[in-house]
Amino acid sequence: MATGIIGVGHYLPEYILTNKDLEKMVDTTDEWIRTRTGIETRHIAKKDEDTSDLAYQAAKQALESAELKSEELDLIIVATVTGDQSFPSVACQIQEKLGASRASAMDIGAACSGFIYGVVTAKQFIDSGTYKNILVIGAEKLSKITDWSDRNTCVLFGDGAGAAVVSEVSEDKGILSFELGADGTGGPALHQEGGNIQMNGREVFKFAVRQMPESAEAVVEKAGLQKSDVDYLIPHQANFRIMEAARERLGIDKEKMAYSVNKYGNTSAASIPIALSEDVQAGKIKDGDHVVLVGFGGGLTWGAMTLRWGK
Question: What percent of the chain has pLDDT over 90?
Fold first, then answer.
């Protein structure tokens, strides 16, 4: 047996904040935001709706997709930098909400790379025979750490959650390769200070347009595949120009790349699992497809993996 993803789910809050809305809040324009980032709208959670609430909705959907009961979970991993509070972890809150009494639980913080870090961590537990079924969730309520008076950052972020059940799959399916990395010297480029997100956009962009394509190409090579073998690319949904750099490096057609940044903005650790879940449900990812996931985030961190889709 191999290790792969057997079920996915996602959730977005109801309220939609448009670029036109932001024009009334800060000195910006719809055209400026769209031409530089590709973002048109983003979903924002209510004041009484926190990260664990978003994560719970995505988790329920993923379990249903996997045809798994919560009692069958061995571990819950939540990738987030916006937990409801310092402790208990969001993962513990999800364990209680789901009634997953057998599962251990922990949060991990790798910012926008967090979901890939979580899936790779889950793979180690399953490969070693320690656990069988692991729920990995990427969930963020970035709106609560966004400075809504800072026009350089407030236009970028949204709230949401995506989830995946990681378990044993057929020998010819599942995770074929992965890469994780970090460069702590780049930490000041994207960090939280004074309760809010602080970003040096130019430095983050330079890092991302180099690292995302390199990581995507590396995991394809590690999987023993050619770039022409890639059927679908799911990059972190941060900025369409960064995403295009990864797509062009792999030489794949535009219709073979997940694109939801226009609707949801940058949802950090939730970005990749939301896009994965949405496109699986839409039938864009089919059994046997070679799929590449790749992301980067604060830390600075990055992560990528190649998998062959299916159970």
Answer: 96
Q: What share of the chain is helix, strand, coil (3-state, %, to 5)?
A: 40, 30, 30
- pTM, two decimals, is 0.96
Same domain, 143 and 267: no
What pLDDT is recorded for position 249?
Answer: 87
Catalytic residue among 112, 154, 239, 290: 112
Domain encompassing residue 54: 2-169
User: Residue 203 in contact with residue 189, Cβ under 8 Å?
Assistant: yes
Looking at the structure, tell me whether residues 163 and 182 fall in a common domain.
Answer: no
The DSSP annotation for 230-285 comes to --EEEE-SS-HHHHHHHHHHHT--GGGB---HHHH-B-GGGHHHHHHHHHHHTT-S
Quote the pLDDT of residue 44: 98
Write the CATH number for 183.
3.40.47.10
> Distance between CA atoms of 289 and 301, rounded to whole angstroms?
27
10, 43, 236, 290: the catalytic one is 236
| Percent residues over pLDDT 70 in the chain | 100
Q: Are 79 and 107 in contact (CB under 8 A)?
A: yes
- Using CA atoms, how far apart are residues 75 and 61, in angstroms rounded to an integer? 17
- Would residue 179 be called left, alpha or beta, if left means φ above 0 and alpha means ψ between -120 and 50 degrees? beta
Do residue 10 and residue 154 come from a single domain? yes
CB 307 within 8 A of CB 289: no
In tens, the pLDDT along 289-303 reads 999 999 999 999 999
Q: What is the CA radius of gyration of the chain?
A: 18
Q: Is 92 one of the annotated active-site residues of the chain?
A: no
| Active-site annotation holds for 112 | yes
Selected catalytic residue, list 19, 133, 239, 266: 266
